[in-house]
Design a protein that fits this description.
With 382 residues, the chain is of the alpha+beta class. The protein has 15 helices and 13 strands. The protein has a 6-stranded antiparallel β-sheet with strand order 1-2-4-5-6-3. It has a 5-stranded antiparallel β-sheet with strand order 7-13-10-9-8. Strands 11-12 form a two-stranded antiparallel sheet. The longest helix has 26 residues.
Length: 382
């Protein structure tokens, strides 16, 4: 088939990509389903359904639906390549229609040509059920991270307060992320109990008594060093490294201040409490005392460089990261419980774990490298 020549996945399942790529309503309409993804190259393969309802009077899939399929093939490549931290918004989409697209199953193959800090260049093809390429596309897209208010809407009217999140459509997802991490901490307490060969209640009490994440990590690593073989220590360290971004976001979501801007009705704002305190102080505290004893107040505008703008894509990415972290820790618990080769194989097949493990384990013993499949970097030939 023509598709086979376009895929270079090495046959590995890409579990994380499936977790990471949530289907919005438009993808549901297209019957979008992830088949495979390669984080290293930013390449994905997806399946979609060309429904009879998409047809023009000639009985072929209308060109706009073909374009939508290709757009939904190319866009997720950035999310896969970045490990779920970036997504993109299409700037330009150029399509070459090569053959009539009849109703039925379609396979899209998308890849990253170049990924910059702000713009990604993408390309891909759409194949019908018989393996015939019916359309090809190239695209440029804006790479999106949580933006700073300073960069997008510095002049809007701002409000920060506890009621902002309650009225936001993002409230359920934010609560879900915080709840996921409560369960992850429970899983980590169980892992610690297992390593200490202690009752789960005892291990949990010990783990939760360490009130900050740094102390908890230190306890886990110290216990792992004494209780686990080297390869499991490396695996735990790698999972902790992968999950750290999500833990940081969870802490920010739980302990920072939410707000909104009149200019950004589709977004919610997040900033450190000190940003609000510094602004309020400038409106209340005397900046100078005059000779006659009177005070001068010099109100300062809020520092909008310290205010992050979260939109739906940013929240979706945060949800995916937290779900991924939970999945990894639960698989690791199964590993330390000696539940067979399956959980270890799943962890080692995860592209993000694989990449980070190769970095963290480069100085490991040969035995640990062999168990974890850590490959030595090839020396360049001069």
């Amino acid at each position: 088939m023509l598709i086979a020549s376009s895929l270079e996945f090495g046959g590995e399942a890409r579990h994380y990509a499936a977790e990471c790529l949530h289907r919005p309503p438009c993808a549901e309409t297209l019957g979008w389903e992830l088949i495979e993804a390669d984080e290293a190259t930013g390449t994905i393969c997806v399946k979609m359904e060309g429904k009879p309802a998409f047809c023009n009077p000639g009985g072929n899939i209308q060109g706009g639906f073909v374009a939508a399929m290709l757009d939904d093939t190319l866009g997720p490549t950035v999310l896969v390549k970045s490990g779920g931290t970036h997504y993109c918004a299409t700037i330009a989409l150029n399509i070459s229609y090569l053959a009539p697209a009849r109703p039925g199953s379609f396979t899209g193959v998308g890849r990253i040509v170049q990924l910059g800090k702000t713009v990604a260049f993408l390309e891909g093809e759409l194949f019908d059920a018989e393996g015939r390429c019916v359309a090809r596309a190239t695209a440029s897209a804006r790479v999106v991270l949580p933006e700073r208010l300073f960069d997008v809407a510095p002049d809007g009217q701002l409000f920060f307060g506890p009621g902002v999140l309650r009225r936001s459509p993002f409230a359920a997802d934010v609560a879900y992320i915080i709840a996921l991490w409560a369960h992850i901490d429970g899983d980590l307490a169980s892992i610690l109990s297992r390593m200490l060969k202690a009752d789960i209640a005892v291990g949990t009490a010990m783990y939760l008594s360490l009130v900050n994440s740094g102390g908890q990590r230190s306890a886990l690593n110290a216990a792992a060093k004494e209780a686990l073989p080297e390869w499991q220590q490396l695996l735990l360290q790698t999972i902790g490294s992968v999950a750290e971004t999500s833990r940081t976001k969870r802490n920010q979501f739980a302990h920072r201040v939410w707000g909104h801007s009149s200019e950004l009705p589709d977004a919610i704002l997040l900033t450190h409490p000190k940003t609000i305190v510094n602004h309020n102080v400038s409106h209340r505290q005397r900046a100078e005392i005059l000779p006659d004893g009177r005070g001068v107040i010099r109100p300062e505008p809020i520092d909008d460089k310290e205010i992050l703008v979260y939109r739906q894509g940013d929240i979706d990415a945060a949800v995916a990261e937290a779900e991924h972290a939970q999945q990894l820790y639960r698989l690791f618990y199964a590993v330390v419980c000696d539940s067979g080769e399956g959980p270890k194989a799943q962890l080692l097949a995860d592209p993000i774990v694989r990449k980070r493990l190769d970095e963290i384990g480069k100085n490991a013993s040969e035995e640990a490298k062999a168990i974890l499949g850590i490959k030595a970097k090839e020396k360049r030939k001069h």
